[in-house]
Specification:
- The chain is mostly helical.
- The chain has one domain (about 5-75).
- It has helices spanning about 5-20, 25-45, 50-75.
- The relative contact order is 0.16.
Length: about 100
């Protein structure tokens, strides 16, 4: 029987998942996966059963692999920015 993942490994997986979620070019997908990642790791953090933590960690690892593949496809076919996304302000001569 192997040990449960360490706190450092769980945090590393969490940060990798958030980083991948933020790489989606589509606003709706990006916000959905960020919210879902936070919810998933909140459940892992609150769990006290070592076997359950291990299974949740393994599932999150598989989801990260699928999320990375999905992010690549989304970046390839990403559309234009939505109105709710922050637009870059245009620079004028007076601003420089």
């Amino acid at each position: 029987m192997s040990n449960q993942p360490s706190r450092r490994a769980i945090l590393s997986l969490y940060h990798s998942t958030l980083r991948t979620s933020k790489s989606f070019s589509s606003y709706n997908f990006r916000n959905y996966f960020i919210r879902r990642s936070k919810d998933t790791f909140r459940v892992i953090q609150s769990e006290s059963d070592p076997a359950r933590v291990k299974s949740l960690y393994a599932e999150a690892t598989r989801e990260l692999a699928a999320l990375r593949r999905s992010a690549i496809v989304n970046q390839l076919y990403g559309g234009s920015r939505l109105a709710v996304e922050g637009q870059k302000p245009e620079m004028t001569r007076a601003d420089t």
